[in-house]
Amino acid sequence: MRCINSVNQVKPLTLLCCMLLAACAPMKDESAPVKAISQQEIVLPKDINMTAQQWPDSNWWRNYNDPQLNELIDRALQKSSSIALAHSRVARARSDVALIASGTQLKVNAMAEINEAHVSSNGYLGPFAEDRPALGTTGPWYTEGIVGLGATLDIDLWGEHRDRLDAVMGVENAHKLEEKAVQLEISADVAQLYYGIQTNYLVTQHLEQLQQSETFVFSSHQARASRGLESIADAEIAKAMLLTIEQQLSMAKQQRVAFRESLRALIGGGELAEIKPMPLPVAQTQLPSSLNYQLLARRPDLQAAHWYVQSSMKQIDAAEVAFYPTFNIKAFFGFDALHMNDLFDHSSQQANIIPGLYLPIFSGGQLEANLDKTRHQRDMLISQYNQAVLTAVKDVVTTGSALQSLQEEQVIQNEKVSSAAAGMNNAQARFKRGLISQAMANEAQHEWLNEQIKQIEMQGRLVSQDIVLNKALGGGKI
Questions:
Q1: How many domains does the chain have?
Q2: Which residues form the signal peptide (predicted)?
Q3: How many CB atoms lie within 10 A of CB 60?
Q4: Among 44, 78, 420, 477, which is 20 to 30 Å from 239 by CA?
């Protein structure tokens, strides 16, 4: 049996469709949305003068020329649980894209159904409740069978499914960039911890030299005090200084263990090979001559925030289209019979083609609330994006300024080390000529070692700020 509408039925249906279109649910106008920050607002202050015409390389840490660091970062990027979590988010977003993309595809289902029914004598099928075989009725019980194929096709008249697809694709792109941001975060953290350990090695070496020097000074004061040549107070002062150095050594060793265990956690656990002492690199990263759109393009976190904004705008488009009519086509071909033994007869064939037009007129405020929600969501994401951009610029400027100040302080500290070295050499020469005691010569060496420790710590801070600046600039083009 084929279902076909007559011409007389089509005209009223066309008229009804026109009336429904005219009765479309009203859409509330939007107030002024939040505006995204402009590129002109991303500027460097004039007092920052450490600029160059280049950005960091993609694998910026390789510029430090340290194979140990390269191996640690490569391992962390492969085995970190944070990377695995970010990758899972990307995979889930990809599944969402596939799910939305299937919305407008043709769907075909096979169906088979048996319906054991008792027909009411007082219903519109009342005549079938009687057992009159001559008329084809064998009621009141019938065993109806249906078997066939059903198909549904949704027609995306206004692009609602396309907008929803663009929205989830935007989220997928955002998750991909968040994965890049996690990689940047981890590589920077590994580099920070690694050079924290290297700085600790150098400081410990100098503290051990100080300990030897101060041990001799303490022994000298103690010997002189025992012979009555000086007050015991001098020996006690020397002992207090020696204990301070031993305390610093103990703290340095504890700090090294903390750095090492944090590094082990970052690279995914497991056995960590011994880290050999290496000299600290020279901080060479400089700020680009201008930031503007390049910072937005190179920072993966800013790019992710941008894609979230784009996705929210597509969600608004889809929410607006939901006020418009939807159209789909349903079809069925198979067999339908009131008696199972007649199910596969040629006369039991049935075909249906059902175009459908649906228009929301009264939704109880659901469509309006959904549209309002998506608009507020967009405004919130734009505000978050603006704040992220301002924070990124602040990070770049403050880190660059700190690096610039440290470089200026390093020049002064280098001069102090040179002066202390000259004083130590003079004291050693005077000691060899018998003009001063060895204790006095050791005190000059003590001063030189202290200045060297300050120099090492400052160099460690310079490297740390150099890593932070590379991170703030987005770690190079990704």
A1: 1
A2: 1-27
A3: 23
A4: 420
Is 30 part of a structural domain of the chain? no
Residues 6+ apart with CB under 8 A from 407: 50, 283, 462
Residue 268 vs residues 70, 72, 119, 148, 181: alpha-carbon distances, Å: 16, 10, 69, 55, 18
Its domain, for residue 395, covers: 7-20+37-472
Residue 477, domain member (yes or no): no
Percent of the chain scored above 90 by pLDDT?
40
- The pair of structure tokens assigned to 131 is 């057992």
Any idea what the CATH number is for the domain that residue 465 is in?
1.20.1600.10
Residue 4 CA to residue 328 CA, distance in Å, equals: 17
Rounded distance between C-alpha atoms, residue 372 and residue 392, angstroms: 30
Give Cα 298 to chain centroid, integer Å.
14
Is residue 4 predicted with pLDDT exceeding 50? no
> For residue 184, which amino acid is it?
L
Question: Up-side HSE of residue 241: CA atoms within 13 Å toward CB?
Answer: 21
Q: How far apart are CA 386 and CA 302, in angstroms?
A: 9
Q: How far apart are CA 163 and CA 324, in angstroms?
A: 14
Distance CA 288, CA 294 (A): 10
CA distance 164 to 156: 11
277 class by beta-carbon count within 10 Å (0-12 exposed, 13-18 middle, 19+ buried): exposed
Contact 53, 289 (CB under 8 A): yes
User: Which pLDDT tens digit goes with each residue over 305-317?
Assistant: 999 999 999 999 9
pTM of the full predicted structure? 0.78
Neighbour tally for 275: CB within 10 Å: 18
| Per-residue pLDDT reduced to its tens digit, 348-363 | 999 999 999 888 888 8
At 257-294, the pLDDT tens digits run 999 999 998 888 778 888 999 999 988 777 766 666 67
Retrieve residue 391's tokens.
């924070």
Establish if 432 belongs to a structural domain: yes
Q: Which residues pair with 150 in a beta bridge?
A: 109, 332
